[in-house]
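Technical annex B. To support the medicinal chemistry partners, we prepared a structural model of the target in complex with adenosine-5'-diphosphate, based solely on the information shown next.
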Amino acid sequence: MRSTMMNVPLTTAAILRHGERVHATARVRTLQADGTIRTGTFAEVGRRSAQLAHALRACGVDGDDRVATLMWNNQEHVEAYCAVPSMGAVLHTLNPRLTPAQLVYVAGHADDRVVIVDGTLAPLLAAILPSLDSVHTVVVTGGVDLGPLRREGVAVIGYEEFLAGHPESYEWPELGEFSAAAMCYTSGTTGNPKGVAYSHRSTYLHSMAACAADGLSVTGDDAILAIVPMFHANAWGLVYAALMAGADLVMPDRFLQAEPLVRLIAEARPTIAGAVPTIWSDVLNYLDANPGHDVSSLGLVACGGSAVPLHLMQAFEEKYGVRILQAWGMTETSPLAAIARPPATVTGEEHWSLRASQGRPVAGVELRLVDDEGNEVPHDGKSVGEIQVRGPWITGAYVGDEDAEKFDDGWLRTGDVGRIDERSFVTLTDRAKDVIKSGGEWISSVELELLLAGHPDVLEATVIGVPDERWQERPLAAIVLREGAEVSPAELRAFLEGKVASWWLPERWCFIPEVPKTSVGKFDKKMLRAQHAEGSLDVVAI
Ligand code: ADP
């Protein structure tokens, strides 16, 4: 029997229409350089998105042309999120923290035609523009001098001038829901960046999952502080979720240091926020060192991108009443795949052990665990394997790349290794590329790092596998100490004793001023391994 339901495509235009009509008075609030907050409404975002779409059409954007953004989190970026996919073009969010060579690579690979750039990032774009052969138009926000961007064959124009005079409504086309809406490249932690193209449908469904009570529970009473950059995996879906639910968006622009963030929280009083653990760890250190700031408006903080240390969650909850929920996902999964919400019946230590896990899959996402031989292994909380995932907002391929190795019979191979328990809580032990294999057994670098990060003298800790004659590989712990702290490797090793199997205890240690980070703020273990291989780490053996 055929269903009798209407076939109304799930598109970003539908999200935008809903946001601007139903939640016309909800706000986008952007932090500015002078510390004040600029405020626009969803109705205004709707009108300006229409103008942006007309302007893009007028400058030649057609079909599924790619329109790139090189922008921080601000209202103009929200307008691009709305206008570009809704007009049928494809939004390509460029990560300004990539190296110039990587930016040239991804912009060329995506065939970007237009770049919308924040004035503050214009020098970065100017330096690579001669190599961006496909780009015919550059639109610059912030009223900066356009001179350095001028070159033959490229039209350069200020954002406000670009929009001016265009109609404030747009007949958004009826698009197929499986057509591409936006694209994002993986940050290349473990290789060359690969492109993922989100569809309108995947974006819509993912936004609903983000809004759901068991997701990030977004309502019209919320204000969402989106610290996670809009160039990093869709800003975790927070922008479209806000438009759906009518939540205010609070945008920190480029001011991502603890001090301006804490001031922004105190003033704008967001109820939900999203950022990677390093940001929350900076915020915690700042709050501890500068008492008297009010962050109590935050009811739910979504945190992920790398493992969230238990002590970070506990400290926020006990000292500041802020609940951090760990979520797990990747660029390829839109990114929300799992969230660590323990059942209410689970209390005490078990509650915290589930909070420290990567969580259970949200509805729409299925997980399985596969061992080295390709066999599925049970979800018993003990068996370890690679996590594979599938669902309507999980990528089934990479753009222009037949990397069959990343897929297995309709499932995405995440490259994440871990366990799944009977209740479907996932615990990641490592990325496949970071796994330490010592004497044929696995040592979890993540578990060692999380434990070490809990030592009061340790600011950051990371653990990599290094070659060992006898055991093939052994862990090397690279430690960043807190200012003024003094602690010896032997003391740190003693701190780990009893918490992990004795053969996991590292005998190689080094103290470093800072852990190298990737463009999205994760520990760059590839770099650290290279530093070790070239002998530039001062390793102490105990
Ligand atoms: P990249 O793959 O370039 O690092 P992504 O942001 O897509 O960029 O990273 C996804 C990866 O980040 C996941 O495969 C996983 O290894 C890691 N990750 C994400 N969330 C968590 C988490 N909560 N705990 C541990 N690792 C995480």
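Notes passed to the chemistry partners:
The first strand starts at residue 27 and ends at 31.
The CA atoms of residues 489 and 509 lie 6 Å apart.
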